[in-house]
Amino acid sequence: MHDCAIQKLHVVFAMDRGGLVGADGATHHGILDFSFLRCIPGMVLMAPKDEQELRDMLFTAVEYKQGPVAIRYPRGHTLGVPVRAGFQKLEIGKSGNCAKRKDIALLAIGSTVLNALKAAETVGR
Questions:
Q1: What is the pLDDT of residue 5?
Q2: What pTM does this model have?
Q3: Distance (Å) of CA 74 to CA 24, 38, 40, 66
Q4: Is residue 62 classed as helix, strand or coil in its secondary structure?
Q5: Distance in angstroms (rounded) separating the CA atoms of residues 23 and 96
Q6: Per-residue pLDDT tens over the stretch 25-39
Q7: What is the CATH number of the domain that holds 32?
Q8: Beta carbons of 57 and 71 less than 8 angstroms apart
Q9: Is residue 32 in a domain?
Q10: How many domains would you assign to the chain?
Q11: How far apart are CA 18 and CA 72, in angstroms?
C-alpha cells in the first residue's frame, strides 16, 4: 500500500499458486489474494484463463505505467492452447466474453474459465 499504490509506482506482482493448488497444501493456497488486493487504491488485478492470455497480461502490465499491477496465475501445467507470435496489449478493466448464450450467464476469472465453459456445455445438453 505505502510502497507502491499510494505513490502510483510501476510495479508488477506476478503471483503463482492462485486458487487451490493441491499438492502444496493449505499454506500455499492463493484464495484470499483477490480479497486483500482489491482494497488497495489503484491496484490493477489480472488473472489469465490460459497461457496466451498470461503472455498478453504480462506485456500489458509492463506497459502500464499508472500504478501497480498484480497478475495471479495457477501452479501446474498449461492448457496447451496455441500461442501466437508477439503480444497484444489488453484494455485495463475490460472483461471478455468466451461464449455467447441467451439461456445462461456464468462469470469466471482465471483458471476457472475453462470449468465455467464446461459447465455451460453440460447445462446445454
A1: 92
A2: 0.84
A3: 12, 18, 22, 26
A4: helix
A5: 31
A6: 777 777 778 888 999
A7: 3.40.50.970
A8: yes
A9: yes
A10: 1
A11: 6
Residue 30 lies in a domain: yes
Q: How far apart are the first and last CA of the chain?
A: 47
The reported pLDDT for the residue numbered 125 is 60
Q: Which domain holds residue 85?
A: 12-90
Q: What is the pLDDT of residues 79-111, one digit of tens each?
A: 788 889 999 999 999 888 888 888 888 888 888
- Determine, yes or no, domain membership for 76: yes
Residues 13 and 101: their CA atoms lie apart, in Å, by 34
Provide CB contacts within 8 A for 38, sequence distance 6+: 45
Q: How far apart are CA 19 and CA 21, in angstroms?
A: 6
Contact status, residue 13 vs residue 44, Cβ threshold 8 Å = no
Q: Alpha helices of 1-125 — where are they, by DSSP H?
A: 33-37, 51-63, 112-123
